[in-house]
């Protein structure tokens, strides 16, 4: 008999003791025999405070202490030069103080939070997941409806270099955000995350790096996308263009 699969949302709700969102009794019963489930739960015990601290603003640098020149009546020849230097130093100090008072690091956006979450994934996070085609269709309907889209398996199966594993409904500042998780042919976890926004469409994906992983982000049709995972920027770039072409 196959062991029942529990989604990450259910396991996180179980860890939080939220009985309305998790079949707690079923999970506890399964834990008696399912060691893989116990391992997944252990991986989901995220230290949220450490993630939050990683995004805390950078403390302002200590303001330098300036020693102002003393100008006396006896410094006849050097007085103009010393006065000019003193004025320049005062202006520099004032400028530094003003810029420090008005500069604040930009708060992390949804892509930064997604990247931090994806950095916790390993091969074992997804390798055990196996779903039937029917289950995938049902799951995609549920997940994509959270952001007002209709995503089909054919739009995800654009390359043999990645295998779709599962979808999750997350959220950012009260807005639904979905995560579609994959494993690459090299066994590396990768995720395509989609958030409904009012961002302008981009001509192509911008490939880069976040949290030490390759990433690509773009916007289209009122949605913003982030594809992230692994170290292969060329792979991420190819997949991003395929997903754009598939109008996911």
Question: Main attributes?
Answer:
globular; 3 domains; about 250 residues; alpha+beta; about 20% strand
A few lines on this structure:
This protein has 248 residues and is α+β, with helices and mostly antiparallel strands. The chain has ten helices and six strands. It has three domains: 1-48, no CATH class; 62-70 and 78-104; 109-245, MucB/RseB, C-terminal domain (Phosphorylase Kinase, domain 1), CATH 3.30.200.100.
- Averaged pLDDT, please? 81
- Widest sheet, order of strands: 1-2-3-6-5-4
Assign the CATH superfamily of the largest domain.
Answer: MucB/RseB, C-terminal domain
The whole-angstrom Rg is: 26 Å
Number of alpha- plus pi-helical segments = 10
- Please identify the top-level CATH class of the largest domain: Alpha Beta
- H-E order: HHHHHHHHHEEEEEEH
Describe the overall structure.
This protein has helices at residues 8-15, 24-31, 35-43, 48-54, 79-102, 110-118, 123-126, 133-145, 153-156, 233-245; strands spanning 162-172, 175-184, 189-196, 206-210, 213-220, 223-228. Helices cover 40% and strands 19% of the residues. Residues 96-104 have low confidence and may be disordered. It starts with 7 loop residues before the first helix and ends with a helix. The chain is an alpha+beta fold. It has a six-stranded antiparallel β-sheet with strand order 1-2-3-6-5-4, with helices on both faces.
